[in-house]
């Protein structure tokens, strides 16, 4: 089995605990420790590289840099395979710091080279204020032959030798304090900048004092006048030190001083960080629009983060709600960029927060959605967070109808399930959903709807759950196939068919047309299943009457032929029927055993199997098996035919009336049993008394025992009293009184009550016949989808084999390798339609087939029309939208003009405030 371990990136890793095969992470660690690089490439994946080993609490790359037996080539390969060179552990140490601590020249060289390849400077990689040279001097392996060589390497690569750590001590001060004369010599001899040995001290003694006192350096020490860290130092090499003043200006919000800084210096330091934040991150955090704009103009990386602050500048701005800065940043994202997934959920969680002049999360949302409206590749609108929630989940929870409609307009799915199985549609107001469905009916507002070639486009994108990646059998360690899975396209509509507040929307043209298309994709399964079952029923009846029930002692040649032929057909269809039921049990066992009809099928299979395989049963047994099997087969055939949308109303009436009848009858069964027992007590002795001529007192023994009495009472419920056969002489008053009560309460009142209930149910069903047809069509299609897209084996059976033996490579997605062609055929999107359908309402609702689309459509798309009622409703929606446009034709134009005027007024106000501030500063 697998044990759950929390990973460093808040994801979950599962590790094997009782498998005969070693866990993948253990294999990886073993291969790394013995430098077996040949197998690493096939073994490594993203999850394994991020896996935190419990004994070390570090990922594999950090462990490799701490182990002296791991060679540089192994470290290099791990980085090339995707290991994070900027990962920070709980001590804020990164791989560079562990390599410096180990003091292995070749490993350190690999790390430095890989950092340079990724555009990271050594001076950006800090561990709580200490750079790699600090780490080497303070914690490095001083017994290593490469100890001094590593220090020289760091200095040659431009590390800041004058950086003070959190204890305000520079590397040379540490080296002098520890009497490391070789390190002191390397720093003073090889540093390309003037070394500061006087600005910092330890217990009152500077590096100069310690060097002189310990006689640690034979050469001449730098003069005190040369200790200005900025003199003669290339800015790129001392970026942290040169950027300190810039960070301080931003913290103090001194934007004029910042903007007046030397442009060349800012250009060189624009992506600098102080260990926790970049300049752009800090500017976004304090909310200074002009500094943010200036940094971006100078080339600041809009996506750059630090090891201490993983949020991008855009995410930081979204958290604080600075709408002007947000607009500047969001407009910097172009076609090839990807906006961080957490931005929109952050905005939506604060959507109803108080607004201020510079803080407005609603405006941020508007800027965001306006940006992705015309370029949806920038952001996955159906992307999820750790809880599986999409932006639409948060919009429904925190937002208003405006933001919900905007999200739906850009393609947010109503069927995206979170980790708790909750869909956005489940918390949506019916009126809002109806308005959205109206908006899904799209057409040219300026076009003339009377023209024959006038077209309507029905958009289904929001009704379909987003496709996700299909995981391979090794999903627990992070591998995936990269393919998109087929989704349950009727998930949303199926929920609507069961929710009372949404049921009426199933008659909406968008829903009706969607179900119509799905029915045409799945109806072949219905007719195939029906044909097979008709063959089963026919062969069963023929076999019973031609041979099994022994109606004829001697069989003619034709009857013999029918016997053998029907037996063969019955045998084949029996196994097909059994396979069908087993398939349904394996895919959805819970749903299968909660459906009463399936129990009828199980009993029918048992009866048919008995007829086929039990040798020489008695004639009485044969007759009983035959009668029961024919009756159950007929019941099942009626229910199966009722799955057709045009016949579903009849079956609904049968089901509803039967259910309500038995429900009320069960409630009154206590009264029926009471009458039956009363009749038994009153009439049983009278039946057994002999008559005057020494014969039995009548032929009726219906009340001879309690069981017969109950049966007789149920028969009497239908009106068959046979009162003349009852003996009222023994208890003439009581027996007649109870019998009259039975007639009035049961035969008259209860029976008429049940009949009235049946009539009422039937009339109600007829009134809602259209809606019920859509409901049962949706539920039938949903069931077919679940069957073909579900697992054909018990859900975790193969995974248990994988737990025990990793050599067993099957997984729970086995159905895709067997039934994928069938599943693809019944799915509309994206192979058959591109989430929309075009209809000609003036051509009797003919469906338009795009040129070059899947040829499977050609068999019916060009000849099939929507029904007249759906076309009528579409025309009503078109007419309503046309009327609305006539009432307010320039609404959109006026809204745009008002928005432009508002922006201009805000610009004028900002310019005026700037002029006032500059005049005050001049005075």
From TrEMBL:
Source organism superkingdom: Eukaryota
Keyword Repeat: yes
GO CC, any one term: cation channel complex
Keyword Nucleotide-binding: no
Chief location bin: membrane
Parts of the chain that traverse the membrane: 524-545, 565-587, 599-619, 625-643, 664-683, 733-754
The protein's name: Ion transport domain-containing protein
Record organism: Diabrotica balteata
Lineage: Eukaryota, Metazoa, Ecdysozoa, Arthropoda, Hexapoda
């Amino acid at each position: 089995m697998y044990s759950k371990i929390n990973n460093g990136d808040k994801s979950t890793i599962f590790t094997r605990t009782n498998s005969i095969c070693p866990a993948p992470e253990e294999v990886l660690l073993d291969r790394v420790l013995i430098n077996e690089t040949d197998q690493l490439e096939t073994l490594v994946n993203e999850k394994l590289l991020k896996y935190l080993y419990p004994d070390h609490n570090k990922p594999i790359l950090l462990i490799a840099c701490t182990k002296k037996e791991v060679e540089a080539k192994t470290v290099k390969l791990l980085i090339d395979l995707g290991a994070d060179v900027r990962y920070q552990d709980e001590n804020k140490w990164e791989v560079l710091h562990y390599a410096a601590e180990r003091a292995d020249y070749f490993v350190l060289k690999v790390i430095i080279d890989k950092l340079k390849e990724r555009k990271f400077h050594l001076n950006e990689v800090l561990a709580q204020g200490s750079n790699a040279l600090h780490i080497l001097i303070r914690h490095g392996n001083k017994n290593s032959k490469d100890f001094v060589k590593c220090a020289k390497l760091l200095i040659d690569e431009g590390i800041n030798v004058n950086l003070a750590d959190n204890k305000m001590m520079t590397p040379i001060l540490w080296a002098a304090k520890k009497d490391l004369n070789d390190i002191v010599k390397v720093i003073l001899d090889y540093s390309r900048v003037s070394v500061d040995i006087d600005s910092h001290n330890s217990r009152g003694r500077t590096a100069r004092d310690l060097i002189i006192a310990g006689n640690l350096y034979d050469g001449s020490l730098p003069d005190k006048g040369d200790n200005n860290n900025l003199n003669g130092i290339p800015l790129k090499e001392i970026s942290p030190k040169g950027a300190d003043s810039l960070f301080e200006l931003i913290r103090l919000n001194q934007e004029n001083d910042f903007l007046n800084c030397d442009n060349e210096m800012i250009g060189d330091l624009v992506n600098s960080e102080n260990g926790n934040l970049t300049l752009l991150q800090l500017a976004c955090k304090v909310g200074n629009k002009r500094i943010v704009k200036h940094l971006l103009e100078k080339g600041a990386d809009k996506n750059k983060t630090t090891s201490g602050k993983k949020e991008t500048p855009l995410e930081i701005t979204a958290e604080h709600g600075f709408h002007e800065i947000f607009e500047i940043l969001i407009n910097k994202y172009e076609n090839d960029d990807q906006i961080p997934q957490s931005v929109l959920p952050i905005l939506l969680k604060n959507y109803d927060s108080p607004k201020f002049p510079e803080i407005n999360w609603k405006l941020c949302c508007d800027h965001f959605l306006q940006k992705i409206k015309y370029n949806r590749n920038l952001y996955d609108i159906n992307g999820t967070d750790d809880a599986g929630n999409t932006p639409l989940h948060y919009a429904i929870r925190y937002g208003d109808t405006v933001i919900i409609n905007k999200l739906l307009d850009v393609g947010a799915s109503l069927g995206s399930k979170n980790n708790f199985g909750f869909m956005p549609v489940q918390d949506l107001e019916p009126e809002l959903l109806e308005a959205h469905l109206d908006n899904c009916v799209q057409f040219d507002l300026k076009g003339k709807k009377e023209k024959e070639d006038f077209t309507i486009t029905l958009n289904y994108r929001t009704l379909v759950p987003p496709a996700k990646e299909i995981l391979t059998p090794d999903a627990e360690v992070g591998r995936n196939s990269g393919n998109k899975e087929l989704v349950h396209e009727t998930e949303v509509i199926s929920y609507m068919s069961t929710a009372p507040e949404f049921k009426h929307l199933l008659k909406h043209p968008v829903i009706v047309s969607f179900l119509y298309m799905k029915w045409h994709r799945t109806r072949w399964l219905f007719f195939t299943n029906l044909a097979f079952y008709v063959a089963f029923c026919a062969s069963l009846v023929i076999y019973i009457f031609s041979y099994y029930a022994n109606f004829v002692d001697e069989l003619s040649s034709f009857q013999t032929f029918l016997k053998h032929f029907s037996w063969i057909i019955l045998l084949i269809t029996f196994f097909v029927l059994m396979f069908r039921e087993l398939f349904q049990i394996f895919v959805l066992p819970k749903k299968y055993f909660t459906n009463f009809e399936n129990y009828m099928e199980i009993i029918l299979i048992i009866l048919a199997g008995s007829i086929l395989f039990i040798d020489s049963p008695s004639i009485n047994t044969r007759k009983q098996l035959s009668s029961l099997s024919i009756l159950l087969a007929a019941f099942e055939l009626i229910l199966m035919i009722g799955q057709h949308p045009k016949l579903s109303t009849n079956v609904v009436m049968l089901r509803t009336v039967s259910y309500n009848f038995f429900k009320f009858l069960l409630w009154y069964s206590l009264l029926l049993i009471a009458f039956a027992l009363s009749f038994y007590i009153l009439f049983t002795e009278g039946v057994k008394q002999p008559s005057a001529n020494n014969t039995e007192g009548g032929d009726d023994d219906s009340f001879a025992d309690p069981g017969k009495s109950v049966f007789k009472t149920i028969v009497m419920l239908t009106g068959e009293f046979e009162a003349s056969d009852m003996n009222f002489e023994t208890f003439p008053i009581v027996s007649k009184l109870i019998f009259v009560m039975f007639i009035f309460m049961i035969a008259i009142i209860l029976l008429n009550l049940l009949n009235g209930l049946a009539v009422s149910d039937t009339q109600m069903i007829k009134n809602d016949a259209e809606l019920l047809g859509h409901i049962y069509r949706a539920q039938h299609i949903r069931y077919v989808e679940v069957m073909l897209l579900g697992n054909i084996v018990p859900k975790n059976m193969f995974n248990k084999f994988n737990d025990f033996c990793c050599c067993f490579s099957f997984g729970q997605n086995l159905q895709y390798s067997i039934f994928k062609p069938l599943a693809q055929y019944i799915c509309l999107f994206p192979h058959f339609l591109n989430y929309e359908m075009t209809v000609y309402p003036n051509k009797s609702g003919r469906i338009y087939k795009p040129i070059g689309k899947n040829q499977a459509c050609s068999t019916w798309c060009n000849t099939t029309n929507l029904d007249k009622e759906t076309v009528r409703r579409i025309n009503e929606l078109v007419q309503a939208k046309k009327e609305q446009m006539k009432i307010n034709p320039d609404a959109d134009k006026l809204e745009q003009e008002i928005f432009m005027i508002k922006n201009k007024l805000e610009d004028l106000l900002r310019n005026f405030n700037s002029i006032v501030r500059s005049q005050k500063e001049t005075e």
